[in-house]
Amino acid sequence: MSDLAHLRRDFPLLGRAVHGKPLVYLDSAASSQKPVQVIDAVAEFYATSYANVHRGAYTLSDEATTAYEGARAKAAAMVGAASPTEIVFTSGTTAAINTVAYGWGLDHLRAGDRIVLTVMEHHSNIVPWQLVAGRTGAELAYLRVGADHQVDLTDLEEVIDERTRIVAVSAMSNVTGTMPPVTQLAAAAHAVGAVVVVDAAQAVPHLPVDVATLGADFLAWSGHKMLGPTGIGCLWGRADRLEEMSPLQGGGEMISDVGLYESRWAPVPHKFEAGTPPIAQAVGLGAAIDYLDKVGMDAVRRHETAITGYALDRLATIPDLTVHGPTDLAVRGGAVSFTLGDIHAHDIATILDEENGVAIRAGHHCAKPLMRHLGLTSAARASFYVYTTEDEIDQLVAGLHTARRIFGLS
Ligand code: C6P
């Protein structure tokens, strides 16, 4: 077991009670809790250095701009970007993928082109492509998911064919925890000249990610899932790819000149950041990156692998329980979805909350095609992060035994 338990004291919310029981927060795949270092950084910024950015010829605005652009540099370093200018701040993963789908897709896709996705994608990496396919006449094609919960590569060359212009894949499923072979998929995509978009919402927070190793052209992730505030996320794009993209939104900040009938854009990345950006949120994201840097992303991954292994072992002892995801810890992360007999996932979540103070997510997890592939309409999901302990897994297991009892499964 790893030694990150001491980190818990940094997370004030984890000290609270729910229904008279100590909170057990097992929903970090939906959103993570925040350490005091992030909460304080945001409060301190508002208290001492807040102003709008890139505008004022005065000290406070300079300080705010330095803090905002400093966060961009930290985000760039975190994923091995060649330059901070390859990072576009967005409101989150969803906005980042939409920025590529519309900004790159509308200009470059034609009728008959292919957009290749996998069946395990989150709706955020399906629906934008459906919308853009509808506008351009491009078609969608899917790589299937096998019985091992991994992307099925048997028809890789048939699906990623000469018509393929975009391959958009998740680096980690938010349902099964599966980590697809992104590097291999990217190589197949590049062999036919396609652009690779990686949904890293569940990857960047949980393990070291390097855009060059992945072979990505674009990478999207959210701040709120990696100890940072809501309302901020990142789109990393290779410099030449970002240059090929049109801005989605027009307004202040994103121009170099505006005439009555036409305008010129600011250089990348500002051309994609119209209007006043999420300044304090970026500062909070920077503090979250500092925090994760200090812990070390290798240590984060080691801790989660250990806690996931412990959880899978404990869950395997519960009769009638099925985990929907790989058992091999090398190819999975800490999102563990399961069903328990015929007890509805929402009932499981309610019992865990009320009886044991355990917070999990229940439902389709915004991945309906994957749920259909699994033959499910809903599942319960426990998900882990740096602050998760074995004791908390024990509370989850105790709550699941209670659920079995209540529903007469014993
Ligand atoms: N998944 C979950 O509980 P946003 O909402 O834009 O920050 O992230 C969207 C998103 C995209 N891709 C993946 C793989 C994700 O897991 C998510 C968010 C949450 O699983 C909310 S549905």
3D structure, described in words:
- The protein folds into 2 domains: 5-30 and 296-406, Aspartate Aminotransferase, domain 1 (Alpha-Beta Complex), CATH 3.90.1150; 39-293, Aspartate Aminotransferase, domain 2, CATH 3.40.640.
- With 410 residues, it is α/β, with parallel strands linked by helices.
- 50% of the residues are buried.
- It is 38% helix and 17% strand.
- The strands form 5 sheets. A 7-stranded mixed beta sheet has the order 4-10-9-8-7-5-6, with helices on both faces.
- It has 13 helices and 17 strands.
- The structure holds ligand C6P.
- Residues 29-30, 92-94, 122, 124-125, 170, 174, 199, 201-202, 222, 361, 365-366 line the site of ligand C6P.
Q: Give the rounded overall mean pLDDT.
A: 97
**Number of separate structural domains:** 2
Tell me the number of helical segments per DSSP (H or I, 4 or more residues long): 13
CATH superfamily of the largest domain: Type I PLP-dependent aspartate aminotransferase-like (Major domain)
Oligomeric state of the chains present here: single chain
| CA distance, first residue to last residue | 31 Å
- List the strand order in the largest sheet: 4-10-9-8-7-5-6
Task: Describe the sheet with the most strands.
Answer: 7 strands, mixed
Elements, N to C (H/E) = EEEHHEHEHEHEHEHEEHEEHHEEHEEHEH
Query: Spans with pLDDT under 50 lasting ≥5 residues?
Result: none
Classify the beta-strand content into a percent band: 15-25%
Q: Give the class from helix and strand content and strand pairing.
A: alpha/beta
- Helical content stands at 25-40%
Instruction: Give a count of the beta strands, DSSP E runs of length 2 or more.
Output: 17
CATH class of the largest domain: Alpha Beta
